[in-house]
Amino acid sequence: MADILLQERTDEGILILTLNRPDAMNCFNFDLLAALDDTIREANLDRGVRCIIITGAKAGDDPKKWSFSTGADLKERRTLTPDQVRRFIFTIRNCFTAVEQVRVPVIAAINGFAFGGGTELALACDLRIASSNVLMGLTETSLAIIPGAGGTQRLTRIVGIAKAKELVYTARRIDAKTALEIGLVSRVVEPDKLIDAALELAREIAKNGPIAVEQAKFAINYGSEACLGVALPLESKAYEITIPTKDRLEALAAFAEKRKPVFKGE
User: Fold this and answer.
1) 89-123 pLDDT, tens per residue?
2) Looking at the domain that runs over 2-206, which CATH code has it been given?
3) Which one from 57, 116, 120, 202 is the annotated catalytic residue?
């Protein structure tokens, strides 16, 4: 199982996770979901992790054949009983929710095809960067099912209810340009620049106060689902957590001394 999800750690505390089933277009089976879920949950406890990047392993040198993930492993799905399918949906939904709720920001570096669960994983990430060869979409209705790993809910919150309905009802596949236009991704780069672009963004995040970034994510994630009367006090509580930290005092000292702060997540 260790090889099904590749892990790389940079000196800045950036954890790069690569879905590693390129011959199967990085589609999700039980083993890959278990590896991803375990790794994400461990990152919650590892204070040295400041940002996570998720991408897909490349199949050869031709970008036209690359895949972020094409969703559920349909070969495995054909062997499952209805009860096992229910177990799979429960597993993938919980895994992607863990990605959404992990304490640090997560960047989806989408390279190539991202269909069904592949798009749903990207939606669970905080930020999405796409390579120019991307083709993505929630294609489940073409298989007589619906998105089951949060796609109907997260897509709606990102692109709006009308556009989400259009994309889900039609099972339409969209290219990177369209994804950028509707706000599904925030940036499009050439395939050979994707990881560099994701790392650049991750470094911008990782240089800031880790506790502050963590609390900002918490406030945005949970405040956006609440009325303003609840969201503003939630923001205040999140702010209060940063006040007694050593990092806040370090930031003030660095400002006075005209140097870059050295944050330790304390």
Assistant:
1) 999 999 999 999 999 999 999 999 999 999 999 99
2) 3.90.226.10
3) 120
